[in-house]
Design brief:
The protein starts with 5 loop residues before the first helix and ends with a helix. It is mostly helical and 141 residues long. It has a single domain, classed as Winged helix-like DNA-binding domain superfamily/Winged helix DNA-binding domain (Arc Repressor Mutant, subunit A), CATH 1.10.10.10. A two-stranded antiparallel sheet has the order 1-2. It contains six helices and two strands. The protein is elongated, with a radius of gyration of 19 Å. Helix 1 crosses helix 3 and helix 4 crosses helix 5.
């Protein structure tokens, strides 16, 4: 099963950008992350629309942080990327007439809702910079 790695890519890019002093191009970020610059541009587009990053055009332009990452949570980045389903589990037939399958659907949908609430609560509690702090500590250990 393919996994949606957009959140991981976005966080990785933001943390690299936080260590840079000037605007950085999609090409430079793509090279740094071994990723196509188009993927970087698509990812940063949602973050731009949410006010997390800004794009500067022209010579010396590129992407910059528009917000202090201490005030940006993982949930902010998740939301900026648009609709993602955090889990690849779903029901076979949501309109079933079978009473057993209806029971299965209720159980799965309920469990998935609870898991999503728990996930979003956790994502709201972590600032993007918390990742960098932990990564920096592990580098020096």
């Amino acid at each position: 099963m393919n996994r949606d790695s957009r959140l991981s890519v976005a966080l990785h890019v933001l943390l690299h950008m936080s260590e840079m002093r000037s605007a950085v191009t999609s090409e430079a970020l793509g090279s740094m992350m071994s990723t196509n610059p188009v993927v970087i541009r698509r990812t940063l587009g949602g973050l731009r629309d949410s006010g997390i990053v800004a794009a500067e055009k022209g010579h010396g332009g590129g992407w910059t942080l528009a917000r202090d990452l201490r005030s940006v949570t993982l949930a902010d980045v998740y939301d900026a990327l648009g609709t993602m389903t955090p889990f690849g589990i779903g029901v076979r037939d949501p309109q079933t007439t079978c009473p057993i399958e209806k029971g299965v659907n209720r159980a799965l949908v309920g469990a998935l809702r609870e898991a999503e609430v728990l996930l979003m609560t956790r994502l709201r509690s972590v600032a993007v910079t918390d990742i960098l702090k932990k990564a920096t500590r592990s580098r020096t250990s």
